[in-house]
Amino acid sequence: MALSLPHPSQNKILSTLTYFDKYDYPLTKAELEYWSGAPVRSSRKYYFLPGRLHLVQLRKQRAKFSQAKWEIAREVGEQLKKFPTIAAIFVTGALAMNNCPKDDDIDLMIVTYPNCLWITRFFVNLYLHQTRRFPKQSRAPNKLCPNLWLDLNNLLIMHNHSLYTAHEILQAQALWDRAGVHHQFITQNSWIEEYLPIAYIETLKNLKLIKNFKFKIENLILWPVNAVFFLAQYVYMWPKKTTERVRLGYAFFHPKGKN
C-alpha cells in the first residue's frame, strides 16, 4: 500500500507556523498566506501549532505594549528628521511585528547618505543619550536601540543569508524615507526571494520606486571626516567588541542579551 505524502502547501504552512511559534506569534489567514506562499482554504481568525491556543491572547497583549512603543518610535523619528545626513529610519525586530513584551526596547535601523554614517552615528547617539539603550544593559524597556546602520552604498546584506534575516528585512517598517530607501533595500537584497518568494514579491508591489537621490560632491568631501569618526569610534568600542560587524559603510550591533 502506497503511503500518502503531505501536500507541498501543507509543508509550507507547517514550516511557517513552526517559524513564528519560536516568537510566540500566531498568524492571521492573510499573514499565513503572505509568509508561506501557500493558499489557506480554511477560515479561522488565527493559526498556530497544536496546543498553542494561549498565543492568541499573548499576541493581543503584546500588541497593546507595542502601541506605546510605536508612539515613542514615531516621536523620536520625527526629531531625527533634523539630521540632513539621514536618508531613512526603520523600526525592526519585535516592534515591527507588534510583538513586543512589556520590557522590550525599540530596535531601529538608520540609513544615511554615503560617506557620513559615522559622523551621523556620533551625533545621533549624543542626541539620544537619555533615551537610548547602552550595551551593558540586559533590559531597557522603551529605550531606543539603533543597532543597525547602513549607508546608501551598502544596502546589500552580504552575510548571514538565512530565513531569519529574510524575515527581518521584509518585516522592517519605515518611520520615514526621503530617498526611496525602502524599495532599494528590498531590491538590492533580492536573495530574499529564495526563502520567501511570495512575501518578497508582495512587499515590492506595495513600495514605490523613488529616484530622488543624487550623489553630491560634498558627500565625497566628507569621506576623510567620516573615516576619522569611524576610527575614533572603532578604537573606543574595540575593548568591548564581540560579534559586532563594522565598516565605513555599515555597522551591525547586537547587544548582549538580544536575539
Q: Your description of this structure?
A:
The protein has 259 residues and is an alpha+beta fold. The protein is built from ten helices and six strands. A hairpin with a 2-residue loop joins strand 5 and strand 6. Helix 1 crosses helix 2 (29-36).
Question: Topology of this protein?
Answer:
Blueprint: H1 8-21, H2 29-36, H3 54-79, E1 86-91, H4 93-96, E2 106-112, H5 117-127, E3 144-151, H6 163-171, E4 173-177, H7 181-188, H8 197-205, H9 217-221, H10 223-237, E5 245-247, E6 250-252
Parallel strand pairs: 2-3
Antiparallel strand pairs: 1-2, 1-4, 3-6, 5-6
In short:
The protein has 259 residues and is an alpha+beta fold.
Quickly list its features.
259 residues, 10 helices, 6 strands, disordered C terminus
Distance between the termini: 46 Å
The sequence of SSEs as H and E is HHHEHEHEHEHHHHEE
> Uncertain segments of ≥5 residues (pLDDT<50)?
1-5, 255-259
Strand proportion: 5-15%
- 3D shape: globular
Number of helices: 10
Structural class comes to alpha+beta
Please give the radius of gyration in angstroms.
20 Å
Q: The biggest beta sheet, please?
A: 6 strands, mixed
Strand order of the largest sheet: 4-1-2-3-6-5
Mean pLDDT: 91
Question: Residue share in helices?
Answer: 40-55%
Number of strands: 6
